[in-house]
Every structure is written in C-alpha cells, then in structure tokens.
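User: Here's a structure from my thesis project, written as structure tokens. My advisor, Dr. K., wants to see whether a designed sequence matches the one we expressed. Can you design one independently, without my sequence as a hint?
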C-alpha cells in the first residue's frame, strides 16, 4: 500500500503522544465522567458529593445531609458523618482529603472494611467535581479540629490547615463548589430536579434527614425530606395519584448471601406497571439481574397461588404472564451489593448473576408466605391479574391488525401514511402531524426521499387510563404502531423500527399541546425504548411570520418577533411590515412548512429524553391520570410557562 503523506508519518513519534496527568483527563473529556456538560452533568456534580454523604449514612455514621443552592448557583453539601480523613497517606504523601479531591480512583470505597456498600461513579466522583469546578472549598470536622482546604479547577490553592477546635463528637464534611463556566454550557440549577433526587434518596435511606435550601432571589424555599418508613413511604408516594386496591403496602427486607434486599409493593386500579430498581442507591433504570429475579419470582408465586385458589376452576386454561401479574403494580426494589458489576460507566444495569438468585429466593419465600397469611390481598392481586390476562386474550386480534406482512408493506394501513422511498431506518424520519390540512401541506413540502408523513385525526386515546385491548382497539394508535413497525409492549423490537426519527408536529395552541402530550404518554407507556434510544422528537414550528416586500423572517416567540420587526424598520414609523400569527400548521403553505419546520438545514427539533424516570412517571400520572386536583395544582404552578399558547 502506498503511503500518502511521508512528511506526516515522519513526525509521528513519542512526542506526539499526549499524557494527561492528574485531573487533566476529566477537564479534557468531561462527558466521559458526568455524561454531559449541560443540565444533566451540572446536576450530576451535586449527586456525586451527596452520594459521599449517603455512603456515610449507609455505613451508619451519618443521619443528616444539607444541600444549599446559593444566590450565584454555587452549591454547599454538608453532612454529620465521620469527616474525610485528614491524616497523611503513607505512600502518596498527601493528606487523605487532598488525595480524595485531586486523584482519580482514590477513596475509601475501594476498601470494603471502610464501606461495605457504596454508590458514586466507580470511585472517581468527588475528584471529578473538583476538576470541573471553578473553585471548591472543603471543611472537615474530625478529631476535635476543623480543617480547611481550597482548590481552583482541580489544583490545590490552599494546603490543609487547622481553623480551630471543635467538640470531639462534632464531626462531618462540608463541601462548597462553583461549577466552571469554561466547562458547562448551563450554570443554573433546577430546584425540582435536585428535590426529586434528594426525595428519592430519603426514601431509600429511611431515617436520614436530607434538606434542600434555595437562596436565589425570588426562588427562596426550603424542604426537608425524611422517610421514617423508607420504601413503604416511597410506594405510597408513587401511588398517591392512583387508587390503591389494598390499603397496606406489602413490605419485606432481608439478607441473602451477603446481599441486602428490600422490597415494597402495592397494586392500584390502573393499567400501567411502575417498578423502580436500585443498587446501592443507584437507580438502575435499565434493570438487571436483581429486577429479573424479582419479576420471575413474582410471576411464579402468583401462578402457584392461583393454582391453589378457587379461581383455578373458573380459569383453568389461563396462565398468567409477567405482564398480567404486574398490571397496576407499583413496586420499589432496592438491593445492597458489596461488589456490584454494572454494564457501562453510567451504572444503569446490574450484571451480578448471584443477585438474581438471591432476590428470586427471597421473593419466593417471603411473598408466598405473605399471600397465605393475607388471603384478601391475595384474592385482589389474582383477580387483577386474571382480568389483565382476559384483556390480553381479547387484544390478540387487535394486535394482529398492527402487524405487517413485511417491514415495508404498508398497503393495508388504515391511515394516510405517505411513506418515504429510502428503506434504511437510520436515514428515514416520520412526521406525526395533527390534522389532514397540515398533513397535506407536509406531504407537498417534504423531501419524499427520506421523510414520511402520517396525518392524525383528532386526539388519540389517553393510554394512561386504558388497558391494552382498548389501546389496540383505537384506530389512530394502530396506525402509529403499524407505521413504526416494531410492535408494542413486550413484543416491541427496537431493531424493527422503520424510522430513527419520529417527529411529533402539532399546532401551537392548547389542542396541539394536548395532542402532543397524549402522543408522549403513549410512547412513554407503550414504547419507552424509543425514548431511551433518542428517536422521539418534537417539531418547533414558528409562531410568527414577519415580512416586508420580498423579505421575510420567522419568529418563535413575541420577543423575537418584535426584534425582527424593529430591525426591519417598524420602530421608525414605517407601517409596510406584515405581521402574521400562525394559529395552526395548516395556515402555512408547503414551502413555508418545509423552510421553517422540516428542512434539516434550517429546522429546530427537540429530542425527548428521560433523565429521571421517577419524575417522568409522576408528571404523566399528574397530567393524564384520573385525579383532577394534582392536575389543577400543576397547571396553576406552570401556567406562566405557557405564554405562547393561545387559550
């Protein structure tokens, strides 16, 4: 093979290999350590410091954690744990606190005598926070003295010093940090995001007081999270917008093969499954062996109880599936594992095989005994599961209507799908468009090579309040499922998705917002894999057209509209400027719709993500559930954000 650049090759020697020392690697590639440098990564800094305090609580040395958002969006996290060690490390010749804050993979979490179980980012957490902070200060109360250090972008600026004496029993760590504007694209903390995680941690660590204070002007508030009942209170909170089928939350905890297992569960009259799993306080939203063990044992125990019950004679040919026994179930599973093995840096799926058998054995034993001792609860659970099984059987015919002979056979679609000519899903996108009028404009304005259009008539079914047979009986939903081509629920297969961009395009009014929410509810409940894969998007059509002669611009809010108008001379007494407010997509001609909303070169589309499944579940229950009062409170609190929606 001929060389193409001898000069370049001759310069490739050891001098071309870059060595990143200390925390340089973190600042060079922050996304590898905290996921992103925007909203998600910014909040992850807080979680990492709080996790250290929670690890002290898990070890039995801490029962109070305080988090403060200061006026400048800097953060303080303080606990009453043992305090980070301040003595000199024998080999590294640095105080323990400086070692923990400046060296990757340095910490007590690797010594299982110090921490039996721990969370955090594989031991790199607090040093990563230091590396990505413009400034960080730490105070340690330990051994009768208060110690202090500070840092600038990961480098030590004030060596460890003693500030004074404290009572010997007065121990703990306080960390103050200010995220680095050189690293982060967003620097403003969201109170609700932090509150959701801290509330979750209080449920997972019963008895620990966790407070959150916001000192920013106009946002001042404080909450204290304390769950004496732990996971029982967690499930009650999750079911607060539902109608429980039995008043008591089923709860049990134990230890099997040195693995701590804690489970709380309660059925409601809804049709959705809400199961959260945690390992050492880490939300494993992709599940893993612990969740597999729980689901398997739950199905087995309930089927065995069914066989012994009076229901067996009536439904002797009916076998309950996993989906049947989990319909309407709200459950939280938390395990404590000494040496957890996670799939990937983000710790979202547990891989330890021994945990599956430990959870399965525990659930088999304890839940079977509970159902024997509580026959009323057992009957309620079995009746609910049998009802789900009958609905599943009734849904089979409706489900068949959503299947196609082949991935590209759409001739029998009941809707008006205008497909694209390309067959590579990675290159294709589909617009779910509100109404035939807008659908017609979109069909004329699109690029037929890679853009498909599916007009939707009216509002689809609210799947938050419907069972699968009713969902599959809805014509518009069947059309969507068929067009996407990947099935639904347990039969969903991501590899069969026909379009890797599924774009919701609705009018900028109340009805449009409602239709968008209904579609998002459908995808969240029935095809969550699409959201996890980053395939769901929301189109952003403009609200205004500002024109003068042949010159025209588009604006997405009033401020942008006024700025454009002023730039075009409206502020100089000229009146030949035409301002048009789009009430709906159908008011745009095909060229305008393409130019503003569909052309990949000029459009803006929002990717739908799910950073917090717990918070997302709560929002969908609030907006789309049966309980009206929480929805009214939510609307009143958030109405100010809907200024661009015509009512």
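Assistant: Designed independently from the structure alone:
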């Amino acid at each position: 093979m001929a060389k193409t650049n001898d000069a370049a090759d001759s310069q490739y020697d050891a001098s071309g290999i870059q060595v990143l020392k200390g925390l340089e690697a973190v600042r060079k590639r922050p996304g590898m350590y905290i996921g992103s440098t925007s909203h998600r990564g910014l909040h992850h800094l807080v979680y990492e410091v709080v996790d250290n305090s929670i690890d002290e609580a898990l070890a039995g040395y801490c029962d109070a954690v305080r988090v403060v958002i200061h006026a400048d969006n800097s953060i303080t996290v303080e606990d009453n744990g043992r305090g980070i060690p301040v003595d000199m490390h024998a080999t590294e010749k640095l105080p323990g606190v400086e070692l923990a804050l400046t060296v990757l993979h340095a910490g007590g979490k690797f010594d299982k005598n110090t921490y039996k179980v721990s969370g955090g980012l594989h031991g790199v957490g607090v040093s990563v926070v230091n590396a990505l902070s413009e400034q960080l200060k730490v105070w340690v109360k330990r051994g009768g003295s208060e110690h202090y250090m500070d840092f600038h972008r990961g480098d030590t600026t004030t060596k460890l010093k003693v500030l004074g004496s404290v009572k010997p029993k007065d121990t703990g760590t306080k960390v103050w940090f200010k995220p680095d504007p050189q690293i982060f694209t967003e620097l403003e903390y969201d109170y609700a995001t932090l509150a959701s995680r801290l509330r979750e941690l209080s449920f997972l660590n019963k008895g620990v007081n966790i407070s959150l204070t916001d000192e920013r002007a106009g946002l001042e508030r404080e909450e204290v999270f304390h769950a004496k009942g732990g996971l029982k209170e967690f499930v009650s909170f999750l079911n607060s917008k539902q109608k429980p089928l039995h008043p008591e939350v089923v709860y049990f905890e134990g230890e099997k093969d040195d693995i701590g297992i804690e489970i709380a569960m309660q059925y409601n009259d809804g049709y959705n499954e809400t199961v959260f799993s945690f390992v050492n306080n880490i939300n494993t939203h992709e599940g893993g062996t612990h969740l597999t063990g729980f689901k398997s044992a739950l199905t087995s125990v309930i089927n065995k109880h069914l066989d012994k019950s009076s229901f067996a004679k009536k439904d002797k040919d009916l076998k309950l599936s996993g989906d049947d026994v989990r319909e309407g179930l709200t459950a939280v599973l938390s395990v404590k594992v000494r040496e957890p093995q996670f799939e990937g840096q983000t710790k979202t799926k547990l891989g330890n095989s021994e945990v599956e058998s430990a959870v399965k054995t525990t659930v088999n034993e304890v839940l079977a005994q509970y159902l024997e001792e509580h026959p009323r609860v057992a009957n309620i659970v079995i009746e609910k599961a049998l009802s789900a099984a009958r609905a599943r059987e009734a849904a089979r015919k409706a489900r068949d209507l959503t299947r196609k002979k082949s991935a590209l056979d759409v001739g029998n679609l009941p809707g008006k799908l205008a497909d694209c000519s390309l067959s590579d899903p990675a290159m294709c996108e589909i617009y779910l468009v509100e109404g035939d009028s807008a659908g017609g404009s979109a069909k004329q304005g699109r690029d037929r090579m890679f853009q498909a259009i599916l007009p939707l008539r009216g509002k689809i079914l609210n799947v938050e309040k419907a069972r699968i047979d009713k969902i599959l009986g809805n014509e518009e939903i069947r059309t969507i499922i068929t067009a996407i081509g990947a099935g639904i629920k347990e039969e969903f297969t991501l590899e069969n998705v026909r379009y890797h961009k599924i774009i919701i395009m609705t009018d900028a009014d109340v009805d449009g917002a409602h239709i968008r929410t209904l579609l998002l509810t459908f995808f969240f409940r029935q095809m969550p894999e699409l959201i996890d894969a980053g395939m769901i998007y929301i189109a952003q059509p403009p609200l205004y057209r500002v024109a003068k002669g042949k010159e025209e611009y588009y604006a997405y809010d009033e401020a942008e509209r006024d700025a454009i108008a002023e730039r075009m001379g409206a502020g100089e007494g000229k009146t030949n400027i035409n301002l048009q407010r789009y009430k709906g997509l159908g008011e745009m001609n095909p060229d305008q719709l393409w130019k503003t909303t569909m052309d990949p070169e000029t459009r803006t589309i929002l990717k739908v993500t799910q950073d917090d499944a717990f918070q997302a579940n709560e929002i969908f229950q609030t907006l789309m559930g049966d309980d009206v009062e929480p929805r009214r409170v939510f609307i009143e609190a958030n109405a100010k954000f809907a200024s661009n929606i015509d009512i």
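When you compare it with your expressed construct, this may help: The chain is about 35% helix and 20% strand.
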